[in-house]
Give the backbone structure.
Amino acid sequence: MLSEKIAKNLGRSSWIRAMFEEGEKLRKIHGADKVYDFSLGNPEVEPPAAVKGKLKDIVLSGEQGIHRYMSNAGYYSVREKVAEYFQKEKGVQMKPENIVMTCGAAGGLNVVFKTIINPGEEVIVFSPYFAEYLFYIDNHGGKPVIVPVDKDTFQPDLELFERHLNPLTKAVLINSPNNPTGVVYNESILARMAEIIGKKEKEYGTQICVVADEPYDKIIYDDVKLPSIPAIFKNSITINSFSKSLALPGERIGYIAVGSDIEDAGLLVDGLVFSNRTLGFVNAPALFQKVVAGSLEEKVDIGYYRKRRDILYNHLVKLGFSCVKPQGAFYLFPKALIDDDVEFARRALKYNLLIVPGSGFGWPGHFRLSYCVSIEMIGNSLPAFEALAKEF
Ligand SMILES: Cc1ncc(COP(=O)(O)O)c(C=O)c1O
């Protein structure tokens, strides 16, 4: 019954899921408190109290009709608030008409790729990458073209980038703060990338769209400033979500913002709205559209994540791991102590440590730790990392 394509993709099953399954087994044997699970990006922290308050107010308001269908783009009043917030944050013009509310960033990415990709067109993806990107692009007949970032800084390598552009390039996907490295892409590198894109568009007579996937935009440390993609790139579509910034991943709420410089932006939005409907999302969840519209200035406590980053990063560096210090998101991406990252993750299991091999992100030789977990678990895991490091 299964299609050949899904059967093939299932075969390449996600390392993150595989580790999660391993964790389930270990938890049954040793008990949950003895297993140190750094595999999933599922925030342990609760949403801010103001967000829960907003939800309660809406549900108890007695207002009629709040559970009905609305325009496939979302409530206009919500899009107005999102546009106003986006304009202020990004320093660019944004109209409510250019906002489409979505089922998280995953929904947004699928809507965008369905709307813009012709069969066989290419999407540049910088590696290491969020593994689902490859499936989202493939879902809509596109071809992911992997461009490795600089191996020391994890910033885009512009020479390599330029070499991968060609007349079939439809989009460049940028994820900053990045999953899995935690790196924030540098403003001057992005500005030079925009020049390269402009030059190539002229040469090929094509339009190349920059798709910014920014679910971690509010989780930034040490006064680092996130460059504004819509201010740097002419043809940009920004995708955002409240899964991480408000710790609401199960509620499936996010949005797409279409850059106002895009030619025929109105037609593009019509296409996005059509895709949102016909992919079967229909519209973003009604209740949570209203909740996030009233919580745009809110975010989870960044100090909470910074504390976890610092404890783990300092410990790993002390143990001899080499690791780029993350400036955002809630992941560490250290180098494994042997070349074979899959074997390294297997050896970590001996100490009940669940880590994800870099191969799962297109970057063998490293591993990812997701530190959106309890501080107790991090504290208890430190001797396990020490024992693991001693093996090599
Ligand atoms: C880089 C990146 N993009 C998109 C997503 C999907 O997020 P959402 O829950 O908003 O669909 C994730 C989730 O972990 C992610 O890490």
About this structure: The CA atoms of residues 156 and 189 lie 7 Å apart. The longest strand covers residues 122-127. The longest helix spans residues 187-204. Residues 4-47+300-390 form a domain with the Aspartate Aminotransferase, domain 1 fold (CATH 3.90.1150.10).
